Amino acid sequence: MAKVGRMKLGSQGLEVSQQGLGCMGMSAFYGPPKPEPDMISLIHHAVQSGVTFLDTSDVYGPHTNEILLGKALKGGIREKVELATKFGATYSEGKFVVRGDPAYVRAACEGSLKRLDIDCIDLYYQHRIDTSVPVEVTIGELKKLVEEGKIKYIGLSEASASTIRRAHAVHPITAVQLEWSLWSRDVEEDIIPTCRELGIGIVAYSPLGRGFLSSGSKLIENLPEGDYRKNMPRFQPENLEANKTIFERVNEMAAKKGCTPSQLALAWVHHQGNDVCPIPGTTKVENFNQNIAALSVKLTPQEMTELESFAATDAVKGDRYPENITTWKKANTPPLSSWKPGIQIDRHILHHSLEAQHHTTAMAKVGRMKLGSQGLEVSQQGLGCMGMSAFYGPPKPEPDMISLIHYAAQSGVTFLDTSDVYGPHTNEILLGKALKGGVREKVELATKFGISMSDGFKVEIRGDPSYVRAACEGSLKRLDIDCIDLYYQHRIDTRVPIEVTIGELKKLVEEGKIKYIGLSEASASTIRRAHAVHPITAVQLEWSLWSRDVEEEIVPTCRELGIGIVAYSPLGRGFLSSGTKLIENLSENDFRKYMPRFQPENLEKNKTIFERVNEMAAKKGCTPSQLALAWVHHQGNDVCPIPGTTKIDNLNQNIGALSVKLTPQEMTELESFAAADAVKGDRYASDITTWKNSDTPPLSSWKDRLDIDCIDLYYQHRIDTRVPIEITIGELKKLVEEGKIKYIGLSEVSASTIRRAHAVHPISAVQLEWSLWSRDAEEEVIPTCRELGIGIVAYNPLGRGFLSSGTKLLENLSEGDLRQLGSQGLEVSQQGLGCMGMSAVYGPPKPEPDMVALIQHAVQSGVTFLDTADVYGPHTNEILIGKDDFRKQAHHHHNTAMAKVGRMKLGSQGLEVSQQGLGCMGMSAYYGPPKPEPDMVALIHHAVQSGVTFLDTSDVYGPHTNEILIGKALSGGVREKVELATKFGIRISDDGKYENRGDPSYVRAACEGSLKRLDIDCIDLYYQHRIDTRVPIEITTGELKKLVEEGKIKYIGLSEASASTIRRAHAVHPISAVQLEWSLWSRDVEEEVIPTCRELGIGIVAYSPLGCGFFSSGSKLLDNLSQDDFRKALPKFQPENLESNKTIFERVNEMASKKGCTPSQLALAWLHHQGNDVCPIPGTTKLENLNNNIGAVSVKLTPQEMTELESFAAAGVVKGGRYAGDLITWRNSDTPPLSSWNVV
């Protein structure tokens, strides 16, 4: 291997390695991305070999190549390399777009710095030249970045000689990157001489002719489907036949020289001069080593001439690129005198009109405007963000949307519009992320409340004060801000007087949580009433060429009161952009498919409107969407349209509408196209709330639902299984202390939950269904209540009326006397009155006067214990009960609705963990589709709070997504409470094949990857997941030992390792734990592996202790597995084995019934009884299963019971192996001797 020397690149002081490494193919363009650990290892190998000049770009991936480099530069590598990246080439809708305007240059640089995770870029190239921006402008911005210390040197790529000269006059150019190889030599005529004249270094990319000079036509035969070289002119059949002769001649000469053809081709570039640095790309260490060796290949002048003759201009067939790609041949830019700050030529509004006419529209400057009369100033045009996350098809990629929002803000569009119902919630979360890094201070943010979606997407409109406040708090949290600029009521709650809703919003203004109040889809009278309580800043309404009904009354009302107007859907839901094509291309879940105007009977007529707009736009030299938007902008300087988009091209086009001027005659003509009788179909389906049905009841009708100061008995109606009961009761305890409730109750709750709740604050009563035909509560719940002195409230004591008169279901309420309920001091009537059926569930609501009279009669009869809930109606039952003056007599009560896990020493090295762990694999992989992230985070938090602190994951689960999930779950102080184990060593290749890796570079790269995904500094227990039988275990453990010494891991573990492998590893560094499959029906480890662990003081972690779930539910498990659950393929679950195996479960289940526990608890208890050095890690994705598993800790087994259990699953009884035969387990995990290892 030749020594890689150093060279001066250009005359500005940059020194680099004589040969660089092009990293593009690792992530993009040349087939699918390559495995990250392999690429990081390759980069590290390159640096160690002396190749320190690394080349990337923000367009490679896009972005993923920079992210890869950022990871590779960790651990002190950054200081050893010269890093070049590029900006200016991007893709939009699959089209190649070039950008060089200052705002883009700066944003691109900030993005690259962030992705690379560095403070300064060594060499920053303009990747392609933006021919709409004078190069002086682009270089001027780069010069500022140099002065700010964000970049050191400036470069150009694919630039013409004249562009290079003009750029160099603004700031010295350090290097020009160009394609230069044996068969790409056109740069020698003008560009190379210009660079040398100006002292500019030359970086040769594709020095091996895109790989062709390495392997000839074989290259093309082996290209994967996504490799863009397949489309290059030189590789097309009509050219390839002639071009392969070039390779054959190079190959022949290489054979004579004793080198490879690629070395010969690279040597030719190296011989061009000491100002030239080639940057061949590769994804394989062997190819990299071969490229370095080219430095030692010497060529005589005669050999140089001979080589050049092989690829003379007329011998090379086909251009370098397809003709639509920008190269130096079309890289001249307009003169500086043509540039006006803030104006950029938009080259991408190049469609529309029947004859595919092209329009070029200059991007207008986005001015500022006063929105309303209360002081809010916004951009003249806003950005509607709904479609990024909801309603208009599936959510769009988050990074793209964040880039779009940043671009909008940089372009002057600073008024951003969202709502809590978009997603729901996800659009606000997206905006919250986009506002980071100083963006929040540059924008005006509007969000909305008032539309709530329940299960099944049933819509409910809410405007009651508690909802308003809770919604605001939720939005503030999701947006991660302290104050909302403009907070709209999205739809009007016609059950709540508007004065009540605005009154609560007014409080939020006074508290500094919102600045300005807005309404959306509100009638004129509602606007007036709201404005009388607190000034309304803006009203949002649908206003466009074909939606003009608001002009009659609402717009005049707003203008009279000084209220700003925000026009949503100004492009008619996109119809005024592309007509009927919009409908043809809508995805299945795009809600526009169901809008009346887009139904076939209406669409046929409505398309004429678009055609006429399109025709007029063509005459005006703009697009139809610009014309339609311009019409809205011309409505007055109090109107701000907020067109939505998910594409930068469309955003630019929308901004261009600001420069479209319309005469009064043109306005009239446009309006005639969409006259009221010409537009067919309503805006929404008839069941949707709009301003037409938004009037609210008078204020005099309103009372708070119960209109009381304190609730006597406040139940948790149903238990939220995602939230530890201690948390809920803790909040209820605070409400008791604040005097808002007197006593706490629970409803429909298990005995263990009652005990846990009672330990936080005394529970006064438990409500449960108890009647002649509902008696299951008698077994455990009733005794628990009596033991703890908790009162019992029996609901449905008449079997929902059935036990009154059978099928007639006649009410027959008896009167009662007073007695004590529970031991906390609450006194109630001996019988209560359940009020639910008066308002909900049992048919339509009953007449209010009749129900009030019934309640009065009940109270007068001594039945003073009244039962309601906020969900009955919802809300109307509480309002009913709050209406009459029997508070002094009636006692209102309102529904709101485990074993201890010890600690253990795991092994003898000092690691302490919970007695039982939590296997997290099934949350993300292998056991069916990934489970919802919020649910899994809540489950992990519940586990930790319950004492299960030993969490188990692996980089192969997902792959990677399980670690990312755990990383999120560990935020907010959880990390300090857990012992975290993860694993490395199983790699999944692009074709889905598994490979076991234990070589040092992989071990290190895998660890770095896990640390980053988990977002932690150190892993508590790091297992080798499967043993790499090609690498001596001493080598792998040696690298792990270094990671311990570096503080990146605390303890080392092995998984599925043989006894001999465990011994050899332990001799290098103490092993803390071995993970193995151990359960009632997987006991082969007991023969040798377990005794070895115990002899060496190694802890034992039992995975799949429930037999992959079989000991929870037997063969039922298999019936319910999803199609992609890998358990379907396990031998024990195949039909020929399952029939026998299900007998095992049946016997376990029978014994569990006798023991008073579940079969899973019994199976787990068997493991817990194996010894205090064993920690099982059952996995689950459900809270109730976790609680069930924890309960196993308290199940006690006698030696006789242990023996009996083991007999159920004796070796001859269990049918089928653990895994298919090709999987690595401890049985085939021995590694070669250390003496066999050679470090390459």
UniProtKB/TrEMBL annotation:
Gene3D superfamilies: NADP-dependent oxidoreductase domain (3.20.20.100). Keywords: NADP, Oxidoreductase. The keyword Oxidoreductase applies. Residues 23-310, 385-673, 704-809, 835-883, 921-1208 form the NADP-dependent oxidoreductase domain. GO terms for cellular component: cytoplasm. The keyword Transport does not apply. It comes from the Eukaryota. InterPro entries: Aldo-Keto_reductase, NAD(P)_OxRdtase_dom_sf, NADP_OxRdtase_dom. GO terms for molecular function: oxidoreductase activity. It holds the Pfam family Aldo_ket_red. PANTHER family: AFLATOXIN B1 ALDEHYDE REDUCTASE (PTHR43625), ALDO-KETO REDUCTASE YAKC [NADP(+)] (PTHR43625:SF40). This is NADP-dependent oxidoreductase domain-containing protein.
